[in-house]
Amino acid sequence: MMVRLPVSLSSGLLLAALLPLAACGGGSKDRPKADLAASKVTTIGVNAYLWRASLDTLSFMPMVQTDSNGGVIVTDWYANPNSPNERMKLTVSILDQDLRADALRVAASRQVNQNGQWVDAPVKAATTQKLEEVILTKARDLRRMAISG
């Protein structure tokens, strides 16, 4: 399942990816090539690569809230068809305009079905850490593609 972004958001992401290229014709020759995809060039309130990577990574889950200015994505409860007695809900917070590991936080809630009632259950720390790694890797790949493309 693919999340369709509003035209203004997808246009903004495209603009954020292309704006740094407009500066390629002149300016300082000392500027490193990595600056072509400067993370702060964005029309949303947070890092565009982390935002896109988060939406892509969580696209299989129903969304309750997506706030690109505040950098918050909240999913609804999702039960894996292979584990129908367990469900998870995620909140992703993007805390900065820079593409850095500490600019991303994933919080998870987990519930298990006991006698027909959903009961809160602990979430392994490795679960949220793995999700953060997946999002960061995807964001770095998106940035790399913007630089080389």
Secondary-structure element order, N to C: HHEEEEEH
- How large a portion of the residues is in β-strands, by DSSP E? 15-25%
Give the overall form.
elongated
Number of beta-strand segments: 5
Order of strands, widest sheet: 1-2-3-4-5
Q: Nearest-angstrom radius of gyration?
A: 18 Å
Structure summary:
The protein has 3 helices and 5 strands.
Give a written overview of the molecule.
By secondary structure, this protein is α+β, with helices and mostly antiparallel strands. The protein contains three helices and five strands. It has helices spanning 7-18, 48-57, 125-148; strands at 63-67, 72-75, 86-94, 104-114, 117-121. Strands 1-2-3-4-5 form a five-stranded antiparallel sheet, covered by helices on one side. Helix 2 (48-57) crosses helix 3 (125-148). The longest helix is centred in the C-terminal third of the chain and has 24 residues, at 125-148. It is elongated and about 55 Å long. It starts with 6 loop residues before the first helix and ends with a helix. 23% of the residues are buried. Mean pLDDT is 80; it is low at 1-42. It comes from Sphingobium rhizovicinum. This is DUF3576 domain-containing protein. Residues 1-22 form the signal peptide. Keywords: Signal. Pfam families: DUF3576.
